[in-house]
Amino acid sequence: MAARAEPEAETPAEGADFITEFIREDLKNGRFSHVHTRFPPEPNGWLHIGHCKAFYIDFSMAEKFGGQCNLRFDDTNPEKEDSSYVEAIKRDVAWMGYDWEDREYYASDYYGYLYDLAVKIIKKGRAYVDDLSEDEISEYRGTAAADKNNITETPPGRNSPWRDRSVEENLDLFARMRAGEFADGAKTLRAKIDMTHPNLLMRDPVMYRIRRETHYRTGKAWCIYPMYDFQHPLSDAKEGITHSLCSLEYEIHRPLYEWFIHEAEVFPSRQIEFARLNMTHTVLSKRWLLRLVQEKFVSGWDDPRMPTIAGLRRRGYTPAAIRSFVSRIGIAKNDSMVDIAFLEYCLREDLNKKALRVMAVLKPLKLIIENWPEGTTEELEAVNNPEDETAGTRKLAFGRELWIEADDFMETPPPKYFRLFPGNSVRLRYGYIVTCTGFDKDPSGAVAAVRCTCDPATRGGNAPDNRKVKGTIHWVSAAHAVPLEARIYDYLFSAERPMEVAPRPDGSPGSFTDNLNPHSLETLTGAYGEPGLAHAAPETPYQFERAGYFVLDGDSAPGKPVFNKTIGLRDTWAKMVNKGK
Ligand code: ATP
Ligand code: MG
Q1: Which ligand is nearest to the CA of 285?
Q2: Of 72, 192, 203, 286, which residue is the catalytic one?
Q3: Which of 247, 274, 301 is the last residue of a domain?
């Protein structure tokens, strides 16, 4: 795995963030009398943690100023959208603890309204029907000549030969586009702005295109669909959105946003951009996540390695941990890369408070206590959560045969190995001090069982002074343990910045999927847990002592629970920060 880079987390701004300042200013100078925001996902994929940052900002700004936040589906791309995505988005936003109440809107409900505004703009002589093809439009615009990284200072484009059609002809043609008289792609409606504008996006952008697609909500009612840059500002205006908060890539669209609001003469919503969330070892774009799903690099949108809300949820993340993360990374104006270790830090902080401590043995090895009478068991008392007294205690069955972790025993130990080896003593957590007397091997030469004796005077932590031991190991009673499957995860991408793709050895360009971590999932089918884990509840965090935090997975079957490892116990973030890195 690549070395960890310097953490470059956005640090929370001193005092209020810049969006709060802008809004305060708008309220003070009377630009707006109240605050109304919206979260506008396109239902073409499941939400990821970058979206959490966005809707955290949308909802919290509304809350801060006593306003409201809408949930609006920006669903004007029939090819890629689907109601299953709508359901997934609603479920995930609600799970994160945000409530849009009855303010659920769909841009597709505005098709009539948007059509009327397009007509209004045509009547003002500010839009025209163009017969150029998509490729010709790009060519006239000068797209090919433009520097992709700087489309706001581009050599001028040239006018379409259809640019000066009369208002009457444009109205007629636009009505006939809607009526289905023309083939897909044969005509577009374009805003008449300026083909020499330095910003490529201002060069007569397309407002409508002809597409005979079935839309998941409007079916075949429409064969023309509005483009994002036209639809979005006018949908905001329709809902009376005061502050349209979006990520930084929309900054260069802002003049267009304002142009449409101005020409349509509608409510003057204001667009404000903030930095996108980028995070190490992951990709945060639905487009890339969709590819991982479609090409089966993961089991689905909710694969526990995915940065989707559903994936994080299944992995054992809590809404509180994610909210804590998105609020602490702050709201900045410049894009930056947040170290995933910081997200994990926020998670551990929350789980440490909540998780019930239990014992499970992931790679089991039999421990036989030779001086323990066969067939007898007793109960030891264990603490459920040292961070929370109210969580109480539980009884653990203890007997002659136990499961311990295979790597808690070594035949010939290296220096500073304080666990079991012949002649050495360890404490069994909540139980006794035992001393290793020997071990059995199977015909292949592998250690099949470890033998020991138990000191009855050391029960439950009561050891005479001279019986201090350096190691404590966890265990489960072989006669009582519940078999379980444990799924252990590592980063989905071993590369810290998966989108930085190197050419392949054969000279071909390579793909971000080349950066996938081939060891991101390890399935341990022969694990054992203490009996209570047979009744584990979904979304209840457990700390498997010494092993990490775990949560029950939906793949569990009666008698065979499956647990996902949420995260290990050792924190890397606090360490990095303490080192002053
Ligand atoms: P993607 O790039 O993942 O496909 P998108 O921007 O196309 O995302 P939308 O459904 O349009 O996805 O996003 C809804 C809102 O979420 C937008 O306002 C967008 O600015 C915001 N958003 C998307 N990704 C991020 C991110 N990584 N960080 C912050 N905000 C984001
Ligand atoms: Mg988008």
Answers
A1: 1
A2: 286
A3: 274
Instruction: Pick the last residue of a domain from 244, 274, 304.
Output: 274
Instruction: Tell me the per-residue pLDDT of 544-567, one tens digit each, with 9 for 90 and over.
Output: 999 999 999 999 999 899 999 999
Q: Are 78 and 184 in contact (CB under 8 A)?
A: no
Catalytic, out of 24, 91, 209, 276: 276
pTM to 2 decimal places? 0.92
* Residues in contact with ligand 1 (CB, 6 Å cut-off): 40-42, 50-51, 53-54, 246-247, 276-277, 284-287
332 lies in some domain: no
Contact 542, 533 (CB under 8 A): yes
The answer as to whether 315 is a domain residue is: no
Per the structure, the complete domain to which residue 567 belongs is given by 356-578
If one counts every other C-beta atom within 10 angstroms of the C-beta of residue 414, the result is 7
276 tagged catalytic: yes
Whether residue 417 is contained in a domain is answered as yes
Distances (CA, A) of 237 to 19, 113, 252, 265, 332: 19, 11, 19, 10, 25
Nearest CA to ligand 1 atom 9: 41
Distances (CA, A) of 42 to 86, 257, 418, 427, 467: 8, 18, 55, 56, 64
- The per-residue pLDDT for range 296-309, each reduced to its tens digit, is 999 999 999 999 99
Question: Are 254 and 360 within one domain?
Answer: no
CA of 309 to the centre of ligand 1 (A): 13
Q: In terms of DSSP bridges, do strands 356-358 and 360-361 run parallel, antiparallel, or are they unpaired?
A: unpaired
Centre of ligand 1 to C-alpha 190, Å, is 26
Atom 10, ligand 1: which residue's CA is nearest? 41
Q: What is the pLDDT of residue 468?
A: 82
